[in-house]
Amino acid sequence: MTKNEETNIVAAMESAAFADEVLIVDSGSTDRTQELAEKRGAKFVSHPMDESGFAGQRNFALTQTDAEWVFYLDADERITQLGRDVIQDIVAQNSNNVYKVERKNIVFGQLMNYGVHRPDYVARLFPRTAVQWQGRVHEGIKTELPVKKLTDILQHYTYTNWYQYFAKFNRYTSLAAEELAQRDKQISNIGIIAHTLGAFFKSYILKKGFLDGFLGFVMSFMSMAYTLTKYMKLQNIYRLKLDRS
């Protein structure tokens, strides 16, 4: 999935060059993303993101290919050499499983081993008809197949500068607040304080973010800021509704 990813799209596609087909689902790029993708043989499909969010984009992608197996790759991710070999072996075996793959996050050039950006597992490899995506922001899958895990598959170059970080921060906190509002979730001021402080404690202490040095502290603090902003935007949604009524 892409939107204005001209700086990332070539490297992402090169890491997936072993695939039989590369499909780009774009939500409105105004840069050279389409030109660069099509120049390298990708199938490029424009599809505006609607209220179904990222899950809607991923579900739409499944309708645009006839491939028996699919692997989802974001533009800021790279498949490792080991990952390529493992993916090809699984597809060749045609095992009836869904796979969550390990993703190692690289933040401002630093590999993060702890905290909120420690290596995580994301559902990416499965038979095309085996899953349905759910969730506007932190989307997940619904499946009846067994779920297995694969290690050392992806490198995730999350942020390279703070302008990019805060643009994504603003977008994601808005989407998260809207998703909570759609589910009729509400929160008190005390609840906001508790969740905000809890986010820092969870990232910096429980997930050992302090072991990633100063950047570990900064990203734990930003996790706290993300939580605060998300809930403040949620309260603002309800306040605006009251003003209009």
Shape: globular
Strand content: 15-25%
Count of discrete domains: 2
- How many DSSP-defined strands? 10
Task: Name the features.
two-stranded parallel sheet; six-stranded mixed sheet; Spore Coat Polysaccharide Biosynthesis Protein SpsA, Chain A; 7 helices; alpha+beta; 245 residues; globular
Describe the structure.
This protein has helices at 9-15, 33-39, 53-62, 81-93, 162-182, 189-206, 213-244; strands at 23-26, 43-46, 69-71, 77-79, 98-107, 110-111, 120-127, 131-134, 140-143, 147-159. The strands form 3 sheets. Strands 3, 4, 5, 6, 7 and 10 form a 6-stranded mixed β-sheet that branches. The protein has a two-stranded parallel sheet with strand order 1-2. It is built from 7 helices and 10 strands. α6 runs antiparallel to α7. 44% of the residues lie in helices and 22% in strands. The chain is of the alpha+beta class and 245 residues long. It has 2 domains: 9-159, Spore Coat Polysaccharide Biosynthesis Protein SpsA, Chain A; 162-244, no CATH class. The model has no long low-confidence stretch (mean pLDDT 94).
